[in-house]
Specification:
Structural class: alpha+beta
Radius of gyration: 31 Å
CATH superfamily of the domain at 145-248: Trypsin-like serine proteases
Largest sheet: 6 strands, antiparallel, barrel
Helix content: 10-25%
CATH class of the domain at 145-248: Mainly Beta
Strand order of the largest sheet: 1-4-5-8-7-6
Strand content: 25-35%
Amino acid sequence: MNFKKFSLALSSCCLLLFISTSSAFSQPAKELRGLQLLEDIEYTITSLAERVTPTVVNITPIREISQGQGFQRRAPFSQGSGSGVIVREDGIIVTNNHVVGEDAMEADVRLSDRSNMIAQVIGRDKETDIAVLKIQSDRKFPAAHFGDSNTLKVGQWVLAVGNPMGLDRTVTLGVVSGIGRERLNLSRYENFIQTDAAINPGNSGGPLFNLRGEVIGINTAIIHMAQGIGFSIPADMVSRVVDQLVSQGRVVRGWLGVGIQSLTKELAEQFGIKEGHGVLVNEVYEHDPAHVAGIKPGDIIVSVDDSPVDSPNQLSRLVARVGPGDNAKILVLRDGKELTYLVPMAERQEKSMLASLPLQKSEVTLGLDVQGLTAALAEQFELQETVGVLVTKVEQGGLAHSEGVHEGDLINEVNRQTVRTVTQFSEAVAKVKPGQTVLLRIIRKAKAFFIVIKTLP
């Protein structure tokens, strides 16, 4: 091989070696960039955890036990019973009401520096399961701040911090799995954030943070025998409750004065509206705001202050947000027409639950017996409504039974027509042809609702 050919071969080998070396190093470079990205994310999470965990506390309620003529403070359990988060530098702590319990007025609070202090329970709200405590100290505490839970989206990353099983300031990472969860029977005003960030016994009352370190929820419940299903009370609800408990020791909510129910497919057809669009007013309490404004049973409430309503729970939350004395703009549908009412809210008060039982019977045509309601019967059974007929018997397997009519129900409307006597009730039902439906308005234990009975063809 002459020198020229050798030089050409050597140049070719060097070129191939360069190409091969460049290819070998290109893949690790991509891996390094990916690794750097992951380390940046990891640094963000660890920095967030370091920043927020000092605001999380361990809470153990302190109860007093009677001893002779006085009381003695009972020492708290060392493992604690729940979590909380400091939201103000002066020592205001937010937790769940079920963490502090019904009778405790003080709690032992263990801070991030492992010191223990006594906090007073300054307010509690059973309706949302929120309680507020105050550490009696002049020192400033590390405090977290509420974020805007209304802007949450499914898939956002969240950090849960708490004290599960007595393990202080445990941090778990997850995502928002769902928003607006309700019908869980955990509290009256349900609008939960669902998350897969691990929440265990002892996490109750602890905060759910977004990546900015803002509290966007208070962890309150898990579904037992399920993995990755936890629920948090949204920050916008918590912050309003906290402000009222701190300023006045109780929560004041608006009261419209109506009974409501969901619109089933059958009810929606009867009222000529799309299923799930609005809620049905089945009762209007006399002299309460809705009654004074002109809202009637059978109206469909579709919005409050321009916020759409699609469930009874949502309507309750929207009304509760309006302060007593403030006006709420209520949009209703009545016979297909939109009506707007400006309703001054009253303060919500507990209504007593009343009951009635049948004494006599009079046969009609829907598989049920009724009797007229007299003043004496209304007084005897403490009925708030005095118009209608009492159901005294429901035939097993009959039409009324299949739709859930009970003995003791008071029927005061048939197909939107008021009935005051057994005769009027019978005449109204007699107008229904085979195969058609009957819309009944029923009062049961002071609760009103509509049902639809389809007659046989």
